[in-house]
TrEMBL record:
<keyword id="KW-0418">Kinase</keyword>
<dbReference type="InterPro" id="IPR027417">
    <property type="entry name" value="P-loop_NTPase"/>
</dbReference>
<keyword id="KW-0808">Transferase</keyword>
<comment type="similarity">
    <text>Belongs to the cytidylate kinase family. Type 1 subfamily.</text>
</comment>
<feature type="binding site">
    <location>
        <begin position="7"/>
        <end position="15"/>
    </location>
    <ligand>
        <name>ATP</name>
    </ligand>
</feature>
<keyword id="KW-0547">Nucleotide-binding</keyword>
<dbReference type="GO" id="GO:0005829">
    <property type="term" value="C:cytosol"/>
</dbReference>
<dbReference type="GO" id="GO:0036430">
    <property type="term" value="F:CMP kinase activity"/>
</dbReference>
<dbReference type="GO" id="GO:0015949">
    <property type="term" value="P:nucleobase-containing small molecule interconversion"/>
</dbReference>
<feature type="domain" description="Cytidylate kinase">
    <location>
        <begin position="3"/>
        <end position="208"/>
    </location>
</feature>
<protein>
    <recommendedName>
        <fullName>Cytidylate kinase</fullName>
        <ecNumber>2.7.4.25</ecNumber>
    </recommendedName>
</protein>
<dbReference type="GO" id="GO:0036431">
    <property type="term" value="F:dCMP kinase activity"/>
</dbReference>
<keyword id="KW-0963">Cytoplasm</keyword>
<dbReference type="InterPro" id="IPR003136">
    <property type="entry name" value="Cytidylate_kin"/>
</dbReference>
<dbReference type="GO" id="GO:0005524">
    <property type="term" value="F:ATP binding"/>
</dbReference>
<dbReference type="Pfam" id="PF02224">
    <property type="entry name" value="Cytidylate_kin"/>
</dbReference>
<dbReference type="InterPro" id="IPR011994">
    <property type="entry name" value="Cytidylate_kinase_dom"/>
</dbReference>
Length: 214
């Protein structure tokens, strides 16, 4: 079974997807980690992340694997390197390059073949797995998402800057020529603004149990 989850930054996709994966014993895939990993690896090589064809070359040079939800290169977990200022600054633009999207999508489909999986991102319900057994769209007001992100790293940027970046990121994510964030037909729409993580998880689990006839 494929459970596909899309939604904007800070809405709770990773948190809930991991909870569902653990509860149902499904594999967990975070597609944003692929875009982050390629951005990181390219910058690490001292190359220009705005030269998108060259980022694709870098991507093709490395083999990414996923170990218990963590992205690895040559077997080494690089998760800690994926949320730096540099990666945050460039990843939205890098991820808008259609050939790179196609490259990432092929890998997501290959990894997910014949297994039970929860996959989250921006275009999972629309492009990568439009026929997923369960499609979910999580939403929340930008102010709520900024507050959640700010609380994750109170030592980092102030709330106003976090909110500004969330709004900018939303704009890029929603206006991408390919793979833009949108609510897929037939998706379970959940506004998480005033729900606890447990309540969101319950809604998704209930949909999975219904599908399984449990
Ligand atoms: N329903 C919720 N209520 C309160 N906080 C939440 C909720 N869902 C997620 N969070 C918190 O919001 C932050 C961002 O969640 P995350 O799962 O990283 O979002 P995303 O993967 O969509 O970017 C995390 O600190 C998480 O614990
Ligand atoms: N399927 C996906 C997943 C992520 N992206 C983009 C969206 C973001 O700008 C980056 C990083 O995604 P990620 O989910 O890690 O971002 P956030 O944690 O929500 O800030 O990649 C995408 O275009 N398509």
């Amino acid at each position: 079974m494929v459970v596909a989850i899309d939604g904007p930054a800070g809405v709770g996709k990773s948190t809930i997807a991991k909870m569902i994966a653990q509860e149902c014993n499904f594999y967990y895939l975070n597609s944003g980690s692929f875009y982050r990993a390629y951005t990181y690896l390219h910058v690490q090589e001292g190359k220009d992340p705005m030269d998108f064809p060259s980022v694709l070359q870098t991507a093709k040079h490395y083999v990414l694997t996923v170990d218990e939800g963590h992205i690895c290169v040559d077997g080494k977990n690089i998760e800690d390197q994926l949320h730096t200022r540099d990666v945050d600054r460039y990843v939205a633009k890098v991820s808008a390059y259609p050939p790179l999207r196609e490259f990432v999508n092929e890998q997501l489909r290959r990894i997910s073949k014949d297994i039970d999986v929860v996959v989250e991102g921006r275009d999972i319900t629309t492009v990568v797995f439009p026929d997923a057994e369960l499609k979910c769209y999580f939403d929340a007001k930008p102010e709520v998402r900024a507050e959640r992100r700010y609380k994750q790293h109170p030592e980092g940027q102030d709330y106003e800057s976090v909110l500004r970046e969330i709004i900018e990121r939303d704009h890029i994510d929603r206006t991408k020529p390919v793979g833009a964030l949108q609510v897929a037909q037939g998706a379970l729409y959940i506004d998480t603004s005033y729900l606890t993580m447990g309540q969101v998880c319950e809604k998704v689990l209930s949909a999975i149990f219904t599908l399984k006839g449990e």
